[in-house]
Automatic annotation (TrEMBL):
Transmembrane segments: none annotated. Keywords: Signal. The keyword Signal applies. The keyword Signal applies. SUPFAM superfamilies: DR1885-like metal-binding protein (SSF110087). Residues 1-26 form the signal peptide. It comes from the Bacteria. This is Copper chaperone PCu(A)C.
Amino acid sequence: MPGSRPAAAGRAPVVAAALLALGALAGCGSADSAEQPGSETSAATSPGPDIAVEGAAVRVPATPDVTAGYLVIDNTGGAADTLTGVRTDAAAEVQIHDTREEDGVMMMERRREVAVPAGETVELRSGGTHLMLMEPDGFEAGDTVELTLVFETSGEISVEAAVEDPMGGSTGMDGHRGHG
């Protein structure tokens, strides 16, 4: 019929208005949920641990049976995590040790795990908590060793550790050849 419109053309303005309204409502809902504390989209902190490992280094073995390793674990997340183990193909075993003084004598004690609190940094260092690589391969200064850290929540994180010789002056460490 001349002068009449198809039925679909009359509905187009109504459909367009409905789509605009839905878009406006969806935008409002997203902004509101992002600002609510505890929301999964909150940008303040991650709800779980957020682990980064830096500064990994191991010493040139002074003896064939053991050497030490050091690193820094940073947890910027909103929950604690726990380092439960470390392994490498470059040694028979990796243990976590604490150095402590008892009756004026420095002693090392094996630890099974290291807590990494939310929002904190834990340093494995000479004279404190550190790694002991048992029966290490014959690596030299300038080599790298892959360490795989195992966390209770975050799982496995692999890092490359630089092999350093404290007697060569490359680390600035205290000269405890081969151990913590």
